[in-house]
């Protein structure tokens, strides 16, 4: 399989008469309601030559309900990427049954492509566009090639890029893409679901307002863009199957774009630092300074969103000992090579208070420090120093065979070295 180029330098030539036809369609049906647009597309514009592609996500029930009104036998394709939430797969079956849809087909990625390009299933971390290309774009391209057009559930309110979305688009290969819900607002969606008593995606009430593959989907805060939880921490906001309208998709992330080193590789980092003006009851995937957490403890504990903790030199981790289970990640700040107080904080968290989550080092993280940080229980590193990064990539981190200080959890200095420093009984 030839991997898709992330940036297209020249736009293919299009059929100008067909382009004029699309402009005319949008002019004629601009004010038509969603059912009318879909019916027009299915019965008049592309009779027998159109299919629908659904993510079976948070808002999918609305468009699929419209399909049930217009044509229950309309081909509906679901991109089964192999990365979906279990709740989404259950939701597919629920909507098929409730709405009486008779022609729903799952599209799977080519197993040979997956084996070749994503053998360990982690391509999404470093090159999310290529992951989407393998698991979504290529399987879909093979299907839509057999139709004159297809229906999507995109809406203008979802992102700034979709803010001028029309009812009818012309793709680069002169197919017609139909967006019946283009003008729907969030309130319209909610009102429609309530009016027709449509089943809700099981994750929607948990803050998942736009639902895609599980590794690339997170909950969103009140007031956030509904798609802010898609590819959080990655330079990406579209999967690539809607490349034509948006003009471009994000360039694949190179390793140099990634600064979080964990589990043996550099990874995408969804976490952000606390910013002035952040609301304690709304932030998520933010490392909250320890002092801020203590001052607003009740609000942070009441919030359902995932949060982290940042511990700066001199701060007492004892003050949050009873709340450590609240944090999905804890960042220990090492502001300077000569400031070693972070090591003590890390050992207290691991050995005395039993914190088992991600414990990361941030700040001035240098190659000589990493072996010592690891001994203290730190298992993730935000690396911005070029020399340290080069050492990690070459697997050339400094080795320290002899230690003066023992560490907890039953471990001691390496067997056979400095035996006079070992504790009694070891």
From TrEMBL:
It is found in: Cytoplasm. It holds the Pfam family DUF934. Binds 1 [4Fe-4S] cluster per subunit. It comes from the Bacteria. Its cofactor is [4Fe-4S] cluster. The lineage of its organism: Bacteria, Pseudomonadati, Pseudomonadota, Alphaproteobacteria, Hyphomicrobiales. [4Fe-4S] cluster binds at residues 131-132, 213, 216. Pathway: Sulfur metabolism; hydrogen sulfide biosynthesis; sulfite from sulfate. The active site is at residue 239. Belongs to the PAPS reductase family. CysH subfamily. It comes from Pelagibacterium lentulum. GO terms for cellular component: cytoplasm. Keywords: Cytoplasm, Iron, Iron-sulfur, Metal-binding, Oxidoreductase. The keyword Ribonucleoprotein does not apply. Its EC number is 1.8.4.10. The gene is cysH. SUPFAM superfamilies: Adenine nucleotide alpha hydrolases-like. It is an enzyme of class 1 (oxidoreductase). This is Adenosine 5'-phosphosulfate reductase. HAMAP family: CysH (MF_00063). It catalyses: [thioredoxin]-disulfide + sulfite + AMP + 2 H(+) = adenosine 5'-phosphosulfate + [thioredoxin]-dithiol. InterPro entries: PAPS/APS_Rdtase, PAPS_reduct_dom, Rossmann-like_a/b/a_fold, UCP030820. GO terms for molecular function: 4 iron, 4 sulfur cluster binding; adenylyl-sulfate reductase (thioredoxin) activity; metal ion binding; phosphoadenylyl-sulfate reductase (thioredoxin) activity. Catalyzes the formation of sulfite from adenosine 5'-phosphosulfate (APS) using thioredoxin as an electron donor. GO terms for biological process: hydrogen sulfide biosynthetic process; sulfate assimilation, phosphoadenylyl sulfate reduction by phosphoadenylyl-sulfate reductase (thioredoxin). Residues 50-219 form the Phosphoadenosine phosphosulphate reductase domain. The keyword Cytoplasm applies.
